[in-house]
Design goal:
heterodimer, A: seven-stranded mixed sheet, seven-stranded mixed beta barrel, B: alpha+beta, three-stranded antiparallel sheet, 7 strands, about 55% helix
Chain lengths: ~525, ~210
Amino acid sequence: MTDDANTQASPAPKVARPEVRHQRFFSIVWLVPLVAIIIGGWLAYRTVSERGPSITITFKTADGIVAGKTKIKYKAIDAGTVESVRLSKDLSHVIVEATMVAEIAGHLWEGSRFWVVQPEITFAGVTGLNTLVSGDFIAFEPGDGKKEARTFKGLNRPPIEVDENAGHKYYLKAQDLGSISKGAPIYYKGVTVGKIVDTALADDNKTITVEIFINKPQEQLIREGTLFWNVSGVSLDLGDILNASLHVASLQSLVAGGIAFDNPPNAGAQVAEDTTFQLLDKYPKKLLEEDPVTDGLKLKLKAELLGSLKTGDPILYREFEVGQILRVRLSDDAATVEIDAVIDPRFAPLVKTNSVFWNASGLHASFGLFSGVKVDVESLQSLLAGGIAFATPNQGGQAVQPGATFLLYDKPKEEWKDWAPHIRLPTETQVKAAAKDGGTPAVEALQEATAPPPPAEPTGPPMPQAVDFPVAGDKVSGSMMIDHLEELGFTNITSVEKSGAIFHVKAAWQAEPVSLRIDARDGKITRQGQ
Amino acid sequence: MTAPSLWVSCGSCRLLTAIGPETPGGRAYCPRCGEALSQRKPNSLSRTWALLIAAAVLYVPANLFPVMTIISFGASQPATILTGVKELAAAGMWPIAVLVFVASITIPMLKLVSLSFLLISVQLRSQWRPRDRTRLYHMIEGIGRWSMIDVFMISILVALIQLAQIATVEPGVGAVCFATVVILTMLATSAFDPRLIWDCLESDDD
């Protein structure tokens, strides 16, 4: 059989018959290139769609920028990569070419800002510490322009980042920047509520404009009367020695500078954004503590010397503050110093036509051969802070008109301190009622209401018969004579003629003109004529 | 009974089978082990073409996309095969740079070109130096696996360098493409039947 089969199926000795199945019409292997093309196409599409526009940024220096490595970041997210860094033709700056990611493409507006973030250690804090290890990156902030742009100018310094929607901008005008720096905080009662965005010299080159940013919702605190002051460094207020105050807003503001603000009691309504305020150079304690006394009995005082008086100094009556100095200025003829003062309406009746004012600032020491050493100090506070004191004679004065002028003596006479007239002061309710009518008439009304009954004797005190000079007769000068006569109560001194030790003076005593002959050697006053 | 046109040895059990004329359109299977019987590797040309085209398509992203991304201190730095070679050369490691360049760029390219050449020559029934073409085929077969050293290197780096913030290596899409290219060219090589090179010579002899 085997042999048969061998011979039969020549030439092979043993031949098997194959099974026959039908072939698939399409080879499945062609799916492989199809899948490869799909994958390749998808990769290509993804790359192209993720690839954003190419932009050009110019920088002053390429410090920290590495081609192919440095990232452009927006909100810490990669927004692009630097492709190349090259020098400009004139070698003045570097040109950085970068490819942005596709999401950024629609936000490359004109005015977009680019700056290199590097580690920075300032008094305001340490920033960009992460770039120490990760390398510098370029930060990007979309602009708000109307046109798209592809070429930008990089910033040399990081801008102070503010989110326009998170608060309001205001401007401050300052005379001196002090140690205020960009990025320094804005304080309200010690709480940081904003920061200084920019500082620049104003167009007139005389003042400094400080742009500040107040976070929401504290922008509600910015009102018409809001006071801003510089809290940079240390402010030692010795003006008020009894409660000397050392103002240091915070250790940070001590070194980095800062601005604080607060509202006085009547600060007014909230103001619009971009309003400009004045920047005070120190803590405005007086302005914040109380309403500045602007209404009340206004008086004008004339002095030979200013004697350390200044705006805001108190007007004292029996060492009690009843008003303050509004303004000091040199008179138009430069002969005297004019001081505008205001007396609290409630204390207006204290001032009479015959009241005397003297400078209570400083120390008055008089050395006399016989009287010894005498030191007058009004009070320790007024000694250092300055002030004006006044006294009113027991009798005879009339209510003064607002704007009345008084002479300011540089020291008080001993007898003035003995004066103790009984003057009925209006009550608080009366003051308030009068204040409703408003202004100066109110003061007059108060004075009317509390005016003392007319004196029983229309004649005033007897005219002094002698004047006491501390120096020898010949050395008495005209001005010294005027001083002494005025101290005695003579007013309206119109002329002083000197012949040796004899003076002829025209003046007024109790509003009655008198002509006097004064012998400076013994101080005897003789009334002449009339 | 007419003489069977072809004698075919089964690929797995070596049973010699005569494939007769009764099988056109159908397919012959070994009666002993069930293996498909064919005189040459079945669909050798179209299969090789398909795999070769797939490999050629993926060769582009394999070289353009980063094979790995080195993330050091938050800064990610993608590296393609070519930048890797460049950096090795820049660092003065010329032998390694050449090795990587040859293994990763030249060999896959050579395989793609050589296989295409073999396929085209077979389809054109070329009689040009069949012995050398066969030698070329065996060379392609032999060196194919060496291209995988790149893939091994990347897998080792990814596994080893996981130092959180300091340095991390992440595989890139290029590595996947590259590995696929190597695998596809190896498959294409094995799908090609070198006997096809000689077929045209044989038929001429007949």
